[in-house]
Amino acid sequence: MKDKIIKILIEARPEFDFNEIQEDFISGGMLDSFDIISIVSDIETELGVSIQGDKILPENFDSLQAIEDLIKESSC
Amino acid sequence: MRLSFKNKKITGVLSVLPENEVHFKDGINEYNFTEKQSLKLAKIMGYGTRRIASESTTVSDLCVHGLEYLFENNYLNKDEIDALILVTQSPDYFLPATSNVISGKLNLKEDLICMDINQGCAGYEVGLMQAYMLLEQPAISKVVLLNADVLSKKVSKRDRNSHPLIGDGATITVVEKSDDDENIELFMKSDGKGSESLKIPAGGFKMPSTPDTAIMNEDVSGNYRSLDNLVMKGDDVFNFVMTRVPEMMNQVYNELSINDDNLDYYLFHQPNKFMLEKLADKLGVDRSKMPNNITEIYGNGSGITVPLNICHNLGSTIKNESYDVCLGGFGVGLTWSLLVCKLGKLDFCEIINYKE
């Protein structure tokens, strides 16, 4: 799961090494709201998970773990 | 807040769009992102074509053109207009009110109420509310509601968050007294604490435009804009829509004892394709009942998207058919509203171009 998420993150922002940096994506200025939209679209397409609109919050995309948790929650 | 009305009816809707059409790809090199990133976002957000007014075209030009069309085609008699309401965020002047300017250009009668209302994405419902309230008066039988904006002039060409979305245009809605006793139920709320979420910081009396306010600055996302430009905090707006609109929709269902089976269409403001898809899913509404093609074809024209939605998606049938609809607006203010009514058997429902 983590590898797929990292691939999606790199697709959105190839200038960052998401294999090394795995948290503070939002607070560190690595992702903005439009990156989040792009990432949600990729997650839905590539992982077959639908992310509810009210779950698309910055805190759910601030770290690799938060994104993984969101995907797991959305899969239920 | 809930307001209820009866014996009033929308009898016609006309959309007036600048004939100048631009495509997202035309400005793609202005954005500080790779073409691949921008094209991907375009697909998700629904960036397509949009109608843009020329530098010299104003809100009054679009409205006058549309009203003259209605007079010439006998859809509307100018002497029957008792009130002219204009909802806009881009008036011709600070003063006088642009509705007065329009009245003067068309030589409308003096026994007329003119008023401008500063509202945006919920501007159709706000304008209808005012029209319905005026129609409670014995002296008023017919109100013309104008929604119009040329906000593209206030959006930075180097702001990928807003520039590919914004379109210009006007709509004209005729609202009249009616023998129909169908209920019209309007729900509306405001949260001024969110007023920073959508804003043009400079140009008013608080911060007059100066050479300094025109200086372009890069934001954390790589967009360039000045204080004279529209700024939208996309994540704030998105979260506001995803929480407050569903809450209000539940209130509507509960208080009116209806559900989505009772509504033929959800004719909502269309900020972008992604947001409206997520909203439809959150509400549990079949996406086919919530048309989502206006921003992609014409651009997001703020308060005009709902009436333009009616013209584009229902124009071919609504002169003969009636539908139970929920109109929805949400945005600047922050303001959000839902209006449940029967809509149909219109005298006219068309889209015309404004040639510049």
In short:
With 76 residues, chain A is mostly helical. Helices cover 50% and strands 0% of the residues of chain A.
Describe the model.
The complex is a heterodimer of chains A (about 80) and B (about 350). Helices cover about 50% and strands about 0% of the residues of chain A. By secondary structure, chain A is mostly helical. Chain A has a single domain (about 1-75), classed as ACP-like (Non-ribosomal Peptide Synthetase Peptidyl Carrier Protein, Chain A). In chain A, helix 1 packs across helix 2 (about 35-45). The longest helix of chain A has 15 residues, at about 35-45. Chain A starts with a helix and ends with a helix. Chain B has one domain: 3-Layer(aba) Sandwich (Peroxisomal Thiolase, Chain A, domain 1). Chain B has helices spanning about 35-45, 60-70, 100-105, 125-135, 235-255, 275-285, 295-300, 305-315; strands at about 1-5, 10-20, 20-25, 50, 85, 115, 140-150, 170-175, 185-190, 200, 215-220, 225, 230, 265-270, 320-330, 335-345, 350-355. In chain B, strand 15 and strand 16 (about 335-345) form a beta hairpin. In chain B, helix 2 packs across helix 3 (about 100-105) and helix 5 packs parallel to helix 6 (about 275-285). The model of chain B has no long low-confidence stretch (mean pLDDT about 95). The interface of A and B includes residues 29, 52, 53, 57 and 58 of A.
